[in-house]
Amino acid sequence: MLEILGKTNIDFMGKRRLAFLFSGIMVVLGLVAVIQIARGSANLGIDFAGGTAVQLKFDQAIRIDEARKALETNGLSDAELQEFGQENKLLIRLKASTTIEEKVAERVVAVFTKEFPSNHFVVDSSTEIGPTIGQKLQQDALIAVLISFAGIILYVAARFEFRFGIAAALATFHDVLAVLGAFYILDKEITLLVVTALLTLAGYSMTDTVVVFDRIRENLRMRRRDSEETIINNAVNQVLSRTIVTSLTVVLVLIPLTLAGGEVLHDFSLALLWGVIFGTYSSIFVASPLLLLWPGASGRMLKRS
Amino acid sequence: MKKVSGRLTLLALVVVVSVIFFIPSFQPLYQALPDWAKRVMPNKGITLGLDLQGGIHLVMEVDEDRAVEIAVDRSVVSLQDLLVDKKIPVESVTRTGPTQVTIQFQNAELKAQIQKMIDEYPTFNETESAGSANRLVWELREMEIKRIKDSAINQALETIRNRIDQFGVAEPMVQRQGLKQIVVQLPGVKEPKRAKDLIKETALLEFKMLDEDNQLKLDLPARIPKEKEAEVLKQAEAKLPEGDQILFERAVDKDTGREYRIPYLVKKRVMLTGDVLSDARVSIGQFNDPYVSISFDAKGGREFERITGDNVKKRMAVVLDNTIYSAPVIQERITGGRAQITGTFSTQEANDLAIVLRAGALPAPLKIIQDLTVGPSLGKDSIEKGVRATLFAGAMVVVFMMVYYRMSGVIADFALALNLLCLIGALSALNATLTLPGIAGIVLTIGMGVDSNVLIFERIREELRLGKAVRLAVDGGYEKALLTIVDSHVTTLITGVALFLFGTGPIKGFAVTLCLGIGINLFTALVGTKVIFDLMNQRHKVEQLSI
Fold this sequence. Notes:
Order of helices and strands of chain A: HHEHEEHEHHHHHH
Oligomer: heterodimer
Distance between the termini of chain A: 34 Å
Number of domains of chain A: 2
Strand content of chain B: 15-25%
CATH topology of the largest domain in chain A: Multidrug efflux transporter AcrB transmembrane fold
Helix content of chain A: 55-70%
Number of helices of chain B: 16
Strand order of the largest sheet of chain B: 9-12-11-16-15
Structural class of chain B: alpha+beta
Radius of gyration of chain B: 35 Å
Structural class of chain A: alpha+beta
Largest sheet of chain A: 4 strands, antiparallel
CATH class of the largest domain in chain B: Mainly Alpha
Largest sheet of chain B: 5 strands, mixed, barrel
Number of helices of chain A: 10
Strand content of chain A: 5-15%
CATH architecture of the largest domain in chain B: Up-down Bundle
CATH class of the largest domain in chain A: Mainly Alpha
CATH architecture of the largest domain in chain A: Up-down Bundle
Radius of gyration of chain A: 24 Å
CATH superfamily of the largest domain in chain A: Multidrug efflux transporter AcrB transmembrane domain
Number of strands of chain A: 4
């Protein structure tokens, strides 16, 4: 039997203060990101904020500062430029202040045709999104988040106990906020795909938490003598190797996708990757200790059997 | 021990069904099949999304208010005609608001006479606010405004459909979304810009008379560079005669190849519109220059004959979307219901013009509010990278499971393969559209599929540690892991459903893959692998489980 971890007996609950401190910081970061998004000053993708994105693929390498200068001299000064490595790809983004009626994408193409006549290029993709659509997408994304959270809390509360539902939801919120905060700090663009990734990782993190809770519930029923802290600690230790192995397999899948899945999938996979790491951490260090914080939790047993 | 034969049959059946649905998604495989098999098999598999095969996704809004204005403008013109016919001298008839027409006249005695004419325009109301002896104000009725707006979007849908049909795109989608939006999807379009222009063009064809008497007085320049249009308009604004407007002809200098504009003074009154066209075709002129020959329907032909007869030796402008294509002198009364639109355009432009004229005009301008265009090369890139990353990720997981769980890991890998097969089979059966996030969804399913097996195996190991016999340990492991697996899958399913309900486009694709994957996961983990363990135990008593 090959095992990464043998039988462990780590005092996870004893480290809850440290964990809560760390998680608290991540949550605050995430909340800052949420507030900045609401204020419109975060790096929202054009699918939410509205605007234009054009991706060009050149025959020869193109220097980003020259490209920027060319755009500026032609009156497109607020462009954001991004290169994609060896393939001579250039992504030009212009945010919502420029409306779609001006045919910004066509203007961008015209600028490069004029300024770089010897460097032939093809338009890989062009996206133009009006501000009204962006708002609708923001709204839809928010509704999707709220509905899935409500659904999950209800399900977990029904299958376990109310405090389990709340703890699981809080832990999941924590994961989503932590990844959002990390994206905000790194000034990564928050696109529709990233939001999809956040929702998916919410589902994943919940799965992870549910597995741990399942074992806690089982142990609570069987061993009524021990203190709840001991029971929870034992449960976490028992499922630890499972938790590590499953996270490892998902991480194994996500790493190649992040590194080699292409530019469209990169941020998406990255968000999921961090999500899995946070999700694993939170099911052990956040969700489980939260159960202990519930008023009058110690000594209370599960009613259902 | 439960009987395994039933479950084995079920498993075999699922595999066969999956393969049958799976094959059409792989054309090389499908093409190699004998004819009889092709007839039995479904012939449609997974469609690639726009992000994978390239194409256009447009969301447009009909400018409804403009449609109402255009309708009011038409009434103004017809009222002017009617007043001329009845020889009632009025000062002006103008549209004074989005839905309002104001009639000014010198002679207050005419008021009653004009007031009566509203009978001919039942869609208008006289408003009380015009308490003047020399003025009448008519307002379009609410019901009519609503009707115009409603029909505007339906008409736009119809027109766009016609145009796209004639342009020729495989599997286009034109749909109404919400109250006033139109979604157009054109997968695999090679010339996105041309397609977009074709859809967006209002294509309102009008015949208007030049005001040659006043043109000289206005002292318009003979030709101007195309940027100077606004300047010319501004200069002439003050001197513009009532009922006239300046329109520009687009022309190209034969020597330099530069585009320039010729300004013309044109009477606002529309003589004839494109409504009366019955056909439009591209022809090639004697100097190899393409032009569009149009045919009028019976009514239009008679009308055209009358107009040309009344205006011999005068110049008539052919105006499309407020740009003059040509302004020929009418040499004689034109009978036979045919005319030509010449101008400086390439054969392709002439071709597109013929298409939009045949398909009819849009009731109002369209506003593009979302435009996603993906070139074919990016799509190919994405597929290659996505597939390569997926295969690599899959291989890593397969190897890991074999190393960590040995023989049982191989069983888990078998479940994984089954999972993938079923998932692609299910997607094919649904004729689902595979997007890039969809591929990510498949990869995620692989990751989660392993999760279930890990849960079971860890439980079995625990049971074995307690010293239970292999058969009991396996049964116990499955039984104890069951609830956990169901719980964890349901929570993910909730997320998937929320994404499906509120996601748009590619995200919906992701949600579909995720939800299907979860269902299939449950099946392969709880039935697929269990049946193999049972089979092993049934054949001979297993003393030592390789796990």
